[in-house]
């Protein structure tokens, strides 16, 4: 880690904004400014090479770029607010210039609209449940936001239950609100999570790693024995297997796999598969 | 001696009142600010950045409903652009054309008057087809 740190320190000392394209996959530190591809030509290195004037106006060819978590807009540039690696995703359907974000690691969750999270019901006041999601405030969940719930037909939710839902309102100015139905009114797997099982907390980066489409860990875990897992984007995982011992083994694996290399992991899985 | 005010003086008084009221309204004495069009959109959600799978998973048949959901949600997320172009037809085109042909006759018979029933004759198959056109008045040539 000494090399990327020294490179970053040099660029900060030079206080020159780097092009986002050249920094992809490298460590960026908060306070750095990044140039988007359209601008780096205009502010090219030095004046030694004279560029021929292009007749087509550059300003018209700008595309919309989305700056994701860890980045902020600062004039025409991107300002880094978290330390981590810079990532980029090309636009799939052709509109816009893609997404830039910083792949950082943290344990504290900040509610974001659209995220599916696991919450614990802490209070029931009138028509609203207060659900603890690990943020600064408990989220509110109305009793009508369940599938098939009406004023007469109330959902069976008690204090202490686990709820899998998504946020509809989540910003820094208001209390977060969550629901257990989607926009069509269907539950889609959201709602009260069943009996038994074990809930534990991991870092947010691990959740994203486990939910990646090509995650080997999940594929290997699925071959061990019948089990059920629910991932919440707030760092909470709920697991359930047939016996308590299997559940505990699963919880330990998922917690430990963040810091294991793939060889160590394969060793552990082969040992488990034997026993 | 006039008791009330003159209409002109009334108008003047009203105008003065309106002026006082509109001057009391506050306004900003700033030059027009043009909103800069920004090409960068800020989003705090990871859903746009990475394709993440659905959060509920079940393996080896532990929870069949969740396994069904997994297939649904992950398939929806992967194959959003693939559309089925071959739509299977329940009824073939030819049969549809035949039905329409006879349908016109059947419905037409319903609205035809008694005299026109002669136009609608049934042939061997039982299909009702309108045979003759309606009799129009023919003008004599002379």
Automatic annotation (TrEMBL), chain B:
Domain of life: Eukaryota
Protein name: M-phase phosphoprotein 6
Species whose genome carries this gene: Homo sapiens (Human)
């Amino acid at each position: 880690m000494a090399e990327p740190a020294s490179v970053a320190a040099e660029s900060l000392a030079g206080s020159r904004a780097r092009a986002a394209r050249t920094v992809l996959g490298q460590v960026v530190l908060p306070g750095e400014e990044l140039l988007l591809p359209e601008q780096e030509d205009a502010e090219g290195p030095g004046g030694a090479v004279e560029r021929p004037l292009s007749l087509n106006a550059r300003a018209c060819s700008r595309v919309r770029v989305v700056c994701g978590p860890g980045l902020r807009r600062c004039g025409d540039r991107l300002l880094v607010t978290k330390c981590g690696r810079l990532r980029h995703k090309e636009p799939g359907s052709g509109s816009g210039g893609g997404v830039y974000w910083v792949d950082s690691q943290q344990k504290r969750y900040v509610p974001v609209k659209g995220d599916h999270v696991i919450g614990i019901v802490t209070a029931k006041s009138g028509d609203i449940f207060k659900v603890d999601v690990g943020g600064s405030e408990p989220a509110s969940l109305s009793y009508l936001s369940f599938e098939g719930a009406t004023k007469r037909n109330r959902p069976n939710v008690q204090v202490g239950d686990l709820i899998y839902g998504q946020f509809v309102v989540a910003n820094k100015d208001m209390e977060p609100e969550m629901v257990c139905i989607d926009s069509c009114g269907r539950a889609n797997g959201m709602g009260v999570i069943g009996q038994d099982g074990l809930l534990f907390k991991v870092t947010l980066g691990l959740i994203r790693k486990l939910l990646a489409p090509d995650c080997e860990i999940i594929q290997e875990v699925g071959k061990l024995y019948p089990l059920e897992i629910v991932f919440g984007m707030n760092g909470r995982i709920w697991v359930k297997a047939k016996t308590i011992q299997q559940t505990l083994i699963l919880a330990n694996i998922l917690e430990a796999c963040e810091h294991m290399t793939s060889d160590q992991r394969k060793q552990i899985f082969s040992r488990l598969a034997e026993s | 001696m006039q008791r009330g005010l003159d209409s002109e003086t009334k108008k003047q008084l009203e105008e003065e009142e309106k002026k006082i009221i509109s001057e009391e309204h506050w306004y900003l004495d700033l030059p027009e600010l043009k909103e800069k069009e920004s090409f960068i959109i800020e989003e705090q959600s990871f859903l746009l950045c990475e394709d993440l799978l659905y959060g509920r998973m079940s393996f080896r048949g532990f929870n069949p409903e969740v396994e069904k959901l997994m297939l649904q949600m992950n398939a929806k997320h992967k194959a959003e652009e693939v559309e089925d172009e071959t739509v299977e037809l329940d009824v073939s085109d030819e049969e549809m054309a035949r039905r329409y042909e006879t349908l016109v006759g059947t419905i037409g018979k319903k609205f035809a008057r008694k005299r026109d029933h002669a136009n609608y004759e049934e042939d061997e198959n039982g299909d009702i087809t309108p045979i003759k056109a309606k009799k129009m008045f023919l003008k004599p040539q002379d």
